[in-house]
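Quick one: structure for this chain?
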Amino acid sequence: MRDPRLAPFRGASLAFAAYLLVQAGSAAVLFVLKLGGGAEGIRDFYLGSEERFTAAKSLAGILEVAVPHLVAVPLVLFAAAHVVGFARALPARAHEALVAISFASASAGVLSSFAVRWLDPSFAWLKILAFAGLEGALLAWAALLVSLFVPLRSPAPSPAGPAAGEAVR
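Got it. Here's what it folds into:
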C-alpha cells in the first residue's frame, strides 16, 4: 500500500474497483446488444431502421439516457481519480492525462448521441471511440485501485540491509 492512511479504505476501494469492472463489462455487453457495436448499428439505433421497424430516437428518449449519465459517470470518475491521485499511484502528468481521457470520453459519448441523430450520421464513429476510451479508462482506474491495495509481490529485502532511517525488525 502506498499510503498507510488509505488502510481503512481498503475494502471499500477494492469493492469500488470490482463495481467498475462489472459496470464496464455490462456496459460493453449492452453497447453491442443495443447499438450493434459498429457504426451502422449506431446509425440505425439513433436514426431508425426500416428493416428493424424502429423509429428515430426522440429528444426525450436521448435525454432519458443522457441526463443520468451526466450525473453518474462524472461522480464515478471523480471518486476514482481522487483515490488514485491521493495515493499518488501515478506520476502527476499520467494522472492528469487519464483524468482528461476519462472525462473527454464520457462527454464525447453523451454528446455523440445527439450528434448522430441531428448533425451527421458519421458521428457514429465518435460514439465508438468515446465508448472505447471510457471503457479503457474505467479498466485503468480499476487496475490502479487494485494495485494500491493488492500488491503483486512484497518488496525484496535490500542486500545491503535496511535503508537509513528504516527500523530493523
